[in-house]
Design goal:
Blueprint: H1 11-22, H2 24-37, H3 45-57, E1 61-64, E2 73-78, E3 83-88, H4 119-138, E4 145-150, H5 159-165, E5 174-181, E6 185-192, E7 194-203, H6 219-233, E8 242-249, E9 260-269, H7 272-293, E10 296-305, E11 308-310, H8 312-325, H9 332-344, E12 360-363, H10 374-379, E13 382-388, H11 399-402, H12 408-430, H13 432-446, H14 467-477
Parallel strand pairs: 3-4, 3-5, 5-13, 6-12
Antiparallel strand pairs: 1-2, 2-4, 6-11, 6-13, 7-9, 7-10, 8-9
Helix pairs in contact: 1-4, 1-12, 2-4, 2-12, 4-12, 6-7, 8-12, 8-13, 12-13
Length: 489
């Protein structure tokens, strides 16, 4: 295959970069459209439909509703090897509605979901990069199979373990993920920890809380006792174990002994075996709480994910593409905006990062957060690029995280991220040795670890978690929807 060079890139990569430069406006419009949809986990109907439709228009064969997720999809283009996968999320968070571009807390719809982590950019970068690779394939520069996965409900760490469990990654040779950040960086080693979440639901007997409380079996008492039990257990947890919760049902009114009460617990550990250990202890604590209150306990699994690990070969590949693409040259206006936002939230006014980060790895101390792409990273070699689309010092899930997400900062960072992602895929398709080396280092990295999904084979996802949010806020958010569909030419 010919490899004519243009500024240090292959012909396929030069084609993809040129396509993305010409379609920078469409990429920004796509990111903005997802921002204004602002759909929470499992309710990303408008977002997934737009992403899938754009891929379908480019000739991808799209399978919707994979693994029982109505807002998930797989889009496939090409044939033969290597098989390279892109995957990304596009869900918003509850209570994160924020008007972009303003330097203070201002909800577009009071109490509504919104994007304050930038998953709108993640989905847009994935699709733009996929189309760029597809155009390079059409021109005969590279060959292989590209799989694009729309992954709903990352904020619930939910969908991708099901994709892996159900065989969608069985033929994949390498995979890539992208995520917005304040830095332009990549890494290898353990990046994020394992997580498991479940509902603990207690059933008792109601009674009048004033006249005859002795006739009741208080389900809320069981929730409180379990909470106290896990609080005592924290003394004995290993340093990186975590347990946190919200009470999802605490009864209806105080003069009625609650016959139903529940808590949604999330447990974390750097390893899959460790998170199983925390969960098993929590189950015993819950059973003890049920015994003390004469209630019955039902445990319902919500999600379970392996830790995220990133492959060294693919990290070095992404780093080499970042070196080619370079950090966006931020304007004085963009720097001033970033400094003003930083000072508004009480952070040093340092502005935007001017340099690409050096390669990080091997990373041994993972971030104490989780991502449902972890299962993919133990099934196949996976690389992840963090692209510079937000302002240093802003916080995910905080209003400040939503402020820059429709500005030129996010748009220009997304363009850089899409180029790196597309370039890495083209490198894999252009040179079989890259994929072979990724698989070799992957086998070395996982050593004797045997991957088995934490999600049971018979388990089906609960897809109604945030349906009430859509019913309540969806009609109020519709006036903010973008009316012009992005066009990639």
């Amino acid at each position: 295959m010919s490899r004519s060079r243009l500024h240090g890139t292959s012909a396929g990569k030069a084609s993809a970069f040129d396509f993305l430069d010409r379609n920078a406006t469409a990429l920004g419009e796509l990111s903005d459209a997802l921002f204004y949809f602002a759909e929470p986990s499992l309710e990303e109907y408008q977002s997934s439909a737009l992403l899938a439709e754009l891929l379908e228009e480019e000739g991808f064969v799209v399978e919707r509703g994979i693994s029982g997720f109505p807002t998930g999809f797989m889009a496939v283009r090409g044939e033969g090897g290597p098989v390279i996968a892109l995957h990304a999320e596009y869900d918003a968070c509850p209570q994160n509605s924020q008007r972009p571009g303003v330097l203070h807390r201002e909800e577009m719809v009071k109490g509504a979901p919104g994007h304050c982590e930038g998953h709108n950019g993640n989905g847009a970068v994935m699709v733009a990069a996929a189309i760029a690779v597809k155009r390079a394939m059409d021109e005969g520069h590279v060959q292989g199979t590209l799989k694009v996965f729309g992954a709903p409900a990352e904020e619930l760490t939910l969908s991708r373990p099901y994709f892996v469990r159900d065989g969608y990654f069985d033929d994949v040779d390498a995979a890539f993920h992208n995520h917005i950040g304040a830095e332009f960086s990549t890494e290898y080693g353990l990046a994020q920890i394992s997580a498991l979440s479940a509902d603990f639901e207690f059933a008792g007997t109601s009674a009048h809380a004033g006249i005859s409380p002795w006739e009741g079996c208080d389900a809320l008492d069981a929730v409180v006792l379990m909470d106290a039990g896990i609080a005592q257990y924290r003394e004995h947890m290993k340093p990186q174990m975590r347990a946190h919760r919200v009470i999802t049902n605490g009864g209806e009114q105080p003069n009625v002994i609650p016959n139903r009460a529940s808590a949604w617990w999330c447990f974390r550990d750097p390893t899959a075996s460790g998170v199983r250990e925390v969960f098993e202890r929590a189950k015993r604590i819950g059973q003890g709480a049920a015994m003390m209150t004469d209630t019955e306990l039902t445990i319902r699994l919500r999600s379970a994910v392996w830790p995220v690990r990133c492959n060294e070969t693919l990290a070095r590949l992404l780093q080499s593409n970042m070196d080619i693409v370079g950090m966006p040259a931020w304007t004085e206006e963009e720097q001033a905006f970033a400094k003003s936002l930083q000072e508004t939230i009480g952070k040093p006014g340092i502005g935007l990062n001017a340099e690409i980060n050096p390669l990080r790895g091997p990373r041994l101390e993972p971030l104490a957060a989780s991502n449902d792409c972890g299962d993919i990273s133990w099934k196949v070699p996976m690389g992840r690029v963090w692209w510079p689309g937000t302002v240093p010092g802003t916080v995910f899930h905080h209003w400040s995280g939503g402020v820059p997400l429709t500005t030129s900062i996010t748009h220009r960072g997304a363009l850089a991220g899409a180029k790196v992602l597309a370039g890495a895929v083209i490198d894999c398709m252009d040179d079989p040795a890259v994929v072979e080396d990724a698989q070799r280092t992957f086998r070395k990295e996982i050593a004797d670890t045997q991957y088995e999904p934490l999600v049971p084979a018979s388990h089906r996802p609960d897809i109604a978690t945030h349906r009430g949010l859509t019913t309540k806020y969806g009609p109020l958010q519709e006036p903010f929807y973008r009316t012009t569909k992005p066009v990639f030419s």
